[in-house]
Amino acid sequence: MNTIKRQIRSLLPPLATIVAATLMSVWLYRIEGGRSLPALWLSNGICLAVLMHRGRRGAVALVTGACCTICCTNMVMGLSFGEGFVGALGNALEMSIALSALSRKDRATYLETPYGTKRFIIWALLVAPLASTLAIMPWLILTGHSRYGEIGSLRFVSHALGTALAVPLTMEVLRWHREPALSRRRTRRCAQALLGLIGASALAFCQPTLPILFIVFPPLVLLALTGNRRWVIGGIIAVAAVGAIATSAGYGPIHRQAPFPAWSAMLLQLCVLSCMAVVLPLTASLEQRRRLGRTLRGSEARYRMLAEHSHDIVLLLGADGYCKYVSPAIQDMLGYPAGKMVESSLESLIEEGSQAVARELWMQLLQGVPPATALLRMRHADGSFRDVEVTGGLINEEPDRVVLTLRDVTARVMAEDALRQERLMTDVTLQVIGDAVFTLDREGKLEFANPAGRALLDRSIAPDEAILERRLPLWREGERLMQAHPASTALQTGMPEGPFLCALELKDETRHAIECSATPIRSDAGAVRGAVLVLRDVSAVLELSERMAHLAHFDALTGLPNRSLLLERLDIALARAKQTAHHLAVLFIDLDRFKQINDTLGHGPGDELLQQVADRLLSVVKSVDTVARLGGDEFVVLLPELSGKPEAAVAATKALEILSKPIRVGRRELQLSASIGVSMFPDDGDDADALIRHADIAMYAAKRHGRNDYHFYTAAMEANAQKEFDLENALRFAIMRAELFLEFQPRIDTGSRKIISAEALMRWRRPDGEICLPDEFIPIAEASGLILSMGNWVLKEACRACKAWQHGSLQGVSVSVNISQVQFSRDNFLSFIMESLRETGLPPHLLELELTESMLMEPSESIQQRIAGLSALGVKLSIDDFGTGFSSLAYLRRFAIDTLKIDRSFVMHMTEDPEDASVIHAIIALAISLGKRVVAEGVETMQQAAQLAALGCHEMQGHWLGRPGNVAQLAKLARHGTHSVSARTTQQ
Asked: Residue 820's pLDDT band (boundaries 50, 70, 90)?
């Protein structure tokens, strides 16, 4: 009901206006004596303007009221009911057509845009009046009007003029309140211009000449330039009112020029319409420019203020990428003055890695693709780089103009990177950490569990429980933790709990030892909002600690007591022996050649061998005795209660016998031997360290005397050990002081009696002038590991000397060098040979390496590759002391050996012992059959040389042929040696 009342109240003003227009038409009609209908033509326009302004709200009621008013007005002016009703129906049809066409879209912008004006002219001024006129034409013809053509033309023109005049004026009046008030100064000027317009209108409409009517245009244009739409509409209404009054009173050019009143009204409307056509577009354009200017000035001021005071850089760039405007913020952000950046490009400030992103952003901006944002790295004036977030857009009013906003986000990027890195590290830590981590809410319900925690949850005894302390129950000292659960305590007290040891109960498993702790999680306000529970499985740690405690006193491989426990037991046994005055023995056992077995078979079989040795030693000792392993292949047996040395000797003999029995390791059966040193209390010492050290010295004495035996400690052994120690120390200084030198012993060809090779022999000249032969210090060098550096030095010095003597009488004479096991087993041995040859410039065929048979025993793939590499290089190989070691036809066939050297022990007695001669004969025959050369060492007599030559020996070496000497002596022997040997042979 209220809605209907509001609609009725809204329709009253337009209906009142229509009634006023019709009453004015009646008044004019009576004044003109029934000859004028000018105001009636305005009714359709007024009604249409109201409908265009309101839309279709109340359109039926408004059109109906307007048509009824028009019908009554027609009958008052003397037309019949039929004529009035048909005219009203025509008006209704005209308003309906115009309203239907103009109310579909853009009704709020009619007469304000070219498109709206075009639609208004087509539908309201042409189509609708023409359609309504054509609709009533049949009725005019049927009723017998003879002037139906003139009446129809007059109706069409008058309705079009009325609509063209009434609609703009009415719509401007309806929008009257929207116009802003003018200043007092402009109001005074507008009032003056309006008075001038009224005066010009009175003057124009009181004189009889038609062209003088145009004097109203200058003051009307002045009013449009000074005021706004409100004043312009008032001026147009004033012109229309003055013109209507003067024309109705019979004055003015319009009254005089029109043949009848209807044409007079139309001419007046044309005059007013012309004024509207001139002034309204001008006013609209001026107002638009004023508003646009105010808006632009305000916008420019606002945006300039924003740009000048913004912490972000604001840039205006042309299509070429050069800056047209740069805000002052660039000084603080990038360190460049704003004035110097104008008409410059930003490309030089962008880091190379961000160039592609910058180009893509620029293309998006020029294409107008929104939004355009990118993260760039730009160079600061101090050379550092800043992370800058760039946002921009294209200015449509200014083609090829781009606005960019640069914001320094270096701190944000660094914070994000740090946060991302911290988050990544936290995630990775939680994923890989071995501890089970759980996050609980305020009620103790599970929120998060890492992989270790989920693994525990899968083995939970109560998988459906929501409360974690029930799902994974903890036990401590035989009682289940309920109220004292660390998570509950942390949630209740808000304080960290633990860590402490407890047991975790899991499904189908014994309880695990767990270290648990809980820490509350607080909100920003400080309230407890949850807790973090950490469970660490320490069962392995406890087991490891127990194992470490065991390993601290026992050997990990054999389970025997180690040195620490041995010393403890030895101290206890010594204290008891001192009290009871009985003897005590320490047996130091070392396996013979264990390193060779370990290197050949590998560490796995070697460990198995040591375990079996430990078991065998345990089987021959008493329960009160102790068998300990000190490391490697060294064992110690403690005999705490003995009557004397005979009982210790019996124990050592049992150990040797049990160890000498064959031992099966895998598929191999090995024969072992051991060397044992024995020290006695109180004869050899009264403390643990002295007894073990003296037993060790005695063990080395057993090794030096042939191994597989035991020796009791004597004071002389320690003197020898001290002598060896001093010799080793002096040998180290000899290497540093270059006290080592080489002598060369010739090898003579049996047939030509010429020197064809020389063996390099190392000598040591001590500071006192004494010359030490290799037999004195080589064993010490091998035991101490010095043999490697000494052997490398010998090899290089021999190659250098051989290269030097190639330019004299020794041209073509090669050099042979003895190679130690340590040198030959090195992986870089072949590369060292190549480096020595390259460094000295010696041809490979002039170098011969002398190997021992033990190096080729059980050959591995690496040894085969090493020998094949030497052979491919051109270096000759010989077997030294052939016949005294593990002689085998297998390695002679497998390896590229050039020479066999018969040991001097066979040559020494070959003239007296037929068996030695037979062995030499067999070796020479074997070598010849295999294509090898044979060298006999230790030739001391002419008879030995003659017999070797008769057996077919290729080369000979010995003091009878030439003693070791320096290169000069070797060269002299090469010049005169053949004749000397021949003469010596003749004398013999």
From this structure: confident
Non-local (6+) Cβ contacts of 932 within 8 A are 892, 897, 898, 899, 900
> Which has the higher per-residue pLDDT, 647 or 234?
647
Retrieve residue 601's tokens.
């078979």
**For 497-544, how does the pLDDT look when each residue is reduced to its tens digit (9 = 90+)?**
878 778 777 776 666 677 888 888 888 787 888 888 888 777 766 776
Nearest C-alpha neighbor of 570 from the set 551, 586, 549:
586
State the residue range of the domain holding 520.
Answer: 433-543
Backbone φ, ψ for residue 795 (5° rounding) = -60, -45
Burial of residue 807 (number of CB atoms within 10 Å: 0-12, 13-18, 19+):
exposed
Name which of 209, 245, 230 is nearest 279 in CA terms: 230
What domain count does the chain have?
Answer: 6
- Which segments within 457-582 are labelled E, that is strand? 474-476, 479-480, 497-504, 512-522, 528-537
Quick one: 620 and 687 in the same domain?
A: yes
For 969, half-sphere exposure in the C-beta direction (CA atoms, 13 angstrom radius) is 11
Phi, psi of 625 (to 5 degrees): -80, 160
| Cβ contact 553:575 at 8 Å | no
DSSP 175: T
Among 520, 543, 566, the domain boundary falls at 543
Query: Does the pTM exceed 0.90?
Result: no
Higher pLDDT, 465 or 611: 611
* Residues in CB range of 580: below 8 A, 6 or more apart: none
Q: Where are the beta strands (DSSP E) in 293-345?
A: 313-318, 323-326
Residue 887, domain CATH = 3.20.20.450
Angle, helices 128-142 vs 81-102, to 10°: value is: 160
What CA–CA distance (Å, rounded) separates 140 from 79? 13
Question: How many C-beta atoms surround the C-beta of residue 971 within 10 A?
Answer: 18
Residue pair 94/126 in contact (Cβ under 8 Å)? The answer is no
What tokens were used for 180?
A: 């802003």
Contact 906, 887 (CB under 8 A): no
Q: Return the axis-axis angle of helices 41-54 and 59-76, rounded to nearest 10°.
A: 170
What pLDDT is recorded for position 35?
Answer: 42
